Amino acid sequence: MPEDDPSAIRSLAVSPDDAVDAYAYRQENPGEAVLRVTPPFHGRMRARIHVYHVDDTELTGAVHLSPADLIADDVVAAYPRLEETLEDADDADRIRERHAEAVAAWQERAREAIVESVALETDDGPHRVDVKRLG
Predict the structure, then answer these.
(1) Is residue 1 part of a domain?
(2) Angle at Cα 72 formed by Cα 66 and Cα 77, nearest 5°?
(3) Is residue 124 classed as helix, strand or coil in its secondary structure?
(4) CB 129 within 8 A of CB 10
């Protein structure tokens, strides 16, 4: 099997902090945050947080995993949203503070909700691998 074939991967080691931070980053900032696995690929790999503005997977052969794919669906759906914009600075500050507290509470919950397996996209279609929590 070629070293650039992600179907060689059987398991991914993932830091729950990386998955949760990448998801929160995507919600609050421009750019993309993913969990990235780079060749050469082998049975056990480490996925690390990666933030980018230009997708370079065609050049590098890396596999990018959406952090939402690594966190249980019900927890992803519960991510707190800023639902109103207030013109008054005091109220806006209070809303931002409350939102930051809600995101921090969500992050605690999400760290415990890492999935047991995930599908990687390969040239031959999806390839399911085990997810091993680090830490």
Answers:
(1) no
(2) 85
(3) coil
(4) yes
Starting at the earlier edge strand, list the strands of the sheet with 44-52: 63-65, 32-37, 44-52, 11-14, 125-133, 117-122
Q: How many helices (H) and strands (E) does the chain have?
A: 4, 6
Residue (of 4, 34, 20) closest to 107 by Cα position: 20
- pTM for the whole thing? 0.89
> Which range of residues forms the domain containing residue 106?
6-133
Domain count for the chain: 1
Per-residue pLDDT of the chain (135 residues; tens, 9 = 90+): 788 899 999 999 999 999 999 999 999 888 899 999 999 999 999 999 999 988 989 899 999 999 999 999 999 999 998 765 455 556 778 888 888 899 999 999 999 999 999 999 888 999 999 999 998
- Residue 72, in any domain of the structure: yes
